[in-house]
From TrEMBL:
<dbReference type="GO" id="GO:0006298">
    <property type="term" value="P:mismatch repair"/>
</dbReference>
<dbReference type="GO" id="GO:0032300">
    <property type="term" value="C:mismatch repair complex"/>
</dbReference>
<keyword id="KW-0227">DNA damage</keyword>
<comment type="function">
    <text>This protein is involved in the repair of mismatches in DNA. It is required for dam-dependent methyl-directed DNA mismatch repair. May act as a 'molecular matchmaker', a protein that promotes the formation of a stable complex between two or more DNA-binding proteins in an ATP-dependent manner without itself being part of a final effector complex.</text>
</comment>
<dbReference type="GO" id="GO:0005524">
    <property type="term" value="F:ATP binding"/>
</dbReference>
<dbReference type="GO" id="GO:0016887">
    <property type="term" value="F:ATP hydrolysis activity"/>
</dbReference>
<comment type="similarity">
    <text>Belongs to the DNA mismatch repair MutL/HexB family.</text>
</comment>
<keyword id="KW-0234">DNA repair</keyword>
<protein>
    <recommendedName>
        <fullName>DNA mismatch repair protein MutL</fullName>
    </recommendedName>
</protein>
<dbReference type="GO" id="GO:0140664">
    <property type="term" value="F:ATP-dependent DNA damage sensor activity"/>
</dbReference>
<feature type="domain" description="DNA mismatch repair protein S5">
    <location>
        <begin position="207"/>
        <end position="325"/>
    </location>
</feature>
<dbReference type="GO" id="GO:0030983">
    <property type="term" value="F:mismatched DNA binding"/>
</dbReference>
Length: 337
């Protein structure tokens, strides 16, 4: 048996990358989240060959100070939390300080950023800095990821076709656009614009862009508040259903999450109006005190722990029922319902 040794940073980042960077779409997710956390109002995502060739993200956010550009790629280096206490009141999408070092350990990364004044640029290969220099003084950040998984052959082999990977990236961007109607997103794949949103804050408009005009037309607004929760969004009239659960999008404090119980709560709201094997289309945005939600469960933060899941389910079901009733799609309750 060999002696116990502490792994060097490059190797430990590569191990972390196994969790954070599953495929090109996971990189896009992490980088768009960074752009959102940086208060960007315009985010451009450009990919080539399903992201396998290149991923380029341009934002107009607050930028990274020139002297911190190297630190951004250090493991567990983050500007988003500082103390134990912050970990329980997360208001940003990121907080682990793992995405940039993980991505850089399995690809070539070029980043340029400016906080408004003189900018700085950095190039990393295999997690190691190979170049640094000045950059344009345009507020915001541009990050370019190429040569993905060149040094992790098993992961490279596991990737699917260009169109599958591009589809996963599309899913990520669609969800981000639905979660943030106030941000203008542009998604360009192999030179073709796939999605472009205005950023004017109108969710129905984003729904039209993502799911089509006809679907958007069939959507009804939901709106509800309880002591702990605020719920807004749209659901499709029950004559419009899908054969898959993935058209139910749920966002908690701006984060897309997957949660079986809450998805069931949405379906319950439709009561008996859903044919067997059919699922609703819904875009639901929940706002709550971050203390009620633990996002530090899953490296990609897709799953979260909710402290009052039952109560929240109830709010979701009730709000949907109310909206359907207001449209006379389900009858008024008699005594109990
Ligand atoms: P996290 O998002 O968890 O903090 P990351 O590794 O994704 O960790 O990013 C590290 C840090 O780099 C962030 O905390 C942030 O300060 C900075 N950063 C990354 N991307 C951007 C961006 N697009 N605009 C401004 N700052 C950024
Ligand atoms: Mg991040």
């Amino acid at each position: 048996m060999a002696h116990i040794q502490q792994l060097d940073a490059t190797l430990s980042n590569k191990i972390a990358a196994g969790e954070v960077v599953e495929r090109p779409a996971s990189i896009v997710k992490e980088l768009v989240e960074n752009a959102i956390d940086a208060e960007s109002t315009h985010i451009l995502v450009e990919i080539e060959e399903g992201g396998l060739q290149s991923i380029r993200i341009v934002d107009n956010g607050i930028g990274i100070a020139a002297e911190e550009i190297g630190l951004a790629f250090a493991r567990h280096a983050t500007s988003k939390i500082q103390s134990d206490r912050d970990l329980f009141t997360i208001r940003t999408l990121g907080f682990r300080g793992e995405a940039l070092p993980s991505i850089a350990s399995v690809a070539r990364v070029e980043l340029q950023s400016s906080t408004g004044g003189a900018g700085a640029g950095i190039v990393l290969e295999g997690g190691k800095e190979v170049k640094r220099g000045p950059a344009e003084a345009r507020r915001g950040t541009t990050i370019c990821v190429t040569d993905l998984f060149y040094n992790t052959p098993a992961r490279l082999k596991y990737l699917k076709t260009v169109s599958t990977e591009a589809g996963h990236i599309s899913d990520v961007i669609n969800r981000m656009a639905l979660a943030y109607p106030g941000i203008s997103f542009q998604y360009v794949s192999d030179g073709k614009t796939i999605l472009q949103t205005s950023g004017n804050g109108d969710l129905r408009q984003v729904i039209a862009q993502v799911y089509g005009r006809n679907t958007a037309h069939e959507m009804i607004k939901i709106d509800g508040t309880s002591l702990d929760y605020e719920i807004t969004g749209y659901i499709a009239r029950p004559m419009l259903t899908r054969a898959s659960r993935q058209y139910m999008s749920l966002f908690i404090n701006g984060r897309y999450i997957r949660n079986f119980k809450l998805a069931q709560a949405i379906q319950q709201g439709f009561h008996t109006l859903l044919p067997i094997g059919r699922y609703p289309i819904a875009v639901i945005q929940l706002k709550m005190d971050p203390i009620l939600i633990d996002v530090n469960v899953h490296p990609a933060k897709l799953e979260v722990r909710l402290s009052k899941e039952e109560a929240l389910s109830e709010v979701i079901t009730t709000s949907i029922k109310q909206a359907l009733r207001a449209e006379a799609l389900i009858p008024e309750p008699t005594k109990q319902s």
